[in-house]
Design a protein that fits this description.
By secondary structure, the chain is mostly beta strands. The protein has 4 helices and 18 strands.
Amino acid sequence: MGVDSNTSTGSIGSEVSRLQDARHRRLREGGLGRALCVLLLFAFVASPALADLELADGRLTLDALVSANAKWLRSERHGMAVSRFDFYRFEAPVGLTAAVGEKASIRLSFDAGFNRGVHDLYVDLRWPGGIGFKAGQFLLPAGSEAIARPRDAVFVERSIVWLNWRPWSARDLDVWDPRDAGAMLTYESGRFDAAVAVVNGSGKTVWLRDDNDWKDVCGRLVVRPIPGVEAFLAARGYYGRIGTEGTAFRNLAGEFRLEFDRFRIAGEGQHAVAGTATRTTCYLQGAYAAHPLLEPVFRVDASLKTNDTDLGFTPGLNISPAGDRFRLMLNYTWRRRISSDPDLRSAEQRLLAQIQAWL
């Protein structure tokens, strides 16, 4: 771990595509958990409920989402261009939340698409005054984009900040999933929220094992400065050791979000260090609810390293032709790597489409 930025090769898009291909190969491995999730989903997907499905007198809540994707990709490097078009599955999360008394609940969720392990598996305790405690495998206090539910995503693909919130030499997309095993203390109020977690640092795993003896620490603070206005400022940080080598890793980040009239604007910046390598990433995005059926969106993002810079922009359109439980997302992404090393220069274009339906 801790790969030096000077040794990076190929475009970010090519690396992501390689990791996605490796992840898709796991589809063939099957698994009882995935099969059970599929059965649960199809058992309840015909329900006329207009919200997360409630069972057992409201003590048990089922949520589920299925999506289908299509992608056209054109990449250029060394004066040569390669194009391809694919249909693929991406996410199919199925979750169950059960109330255990007045102050506790348990959460279990899978990805019926292609992940063998669980996503969420934790106990959640809540006390008066906004104090909470989680233990198990859960979403870490990362950025808003990283912890957003798939149905709340604004774009088909996540930003370059999300791709770099953990070390970028990771060999599996699961490392970018903002879940880990450990314990987290939270506080929520009308003006600010805070969360601090102590976790293994191994990411989402099947056996919940730590890769090293170090326990990682991360936290997030959210402040809503103006009462009655949909806006917040947030800061977060992470410090730990990654992988069996115990490479030191840390990041510091800040973000904001503002909603007014029909507009939503958000931005995030992060500085990350893994070993001796550093990377600074940021994005700025906006969405406009032009019509109940149409939402134009736009995002620019960048990644800055010692000898090269990645720049990208993504315009898109979200369409809801059949109510608020079905959505078609259309994106075009352009990305270019500018480098002092000619071998690292590259360009990429993507056309992305995703259909989502959820309970």
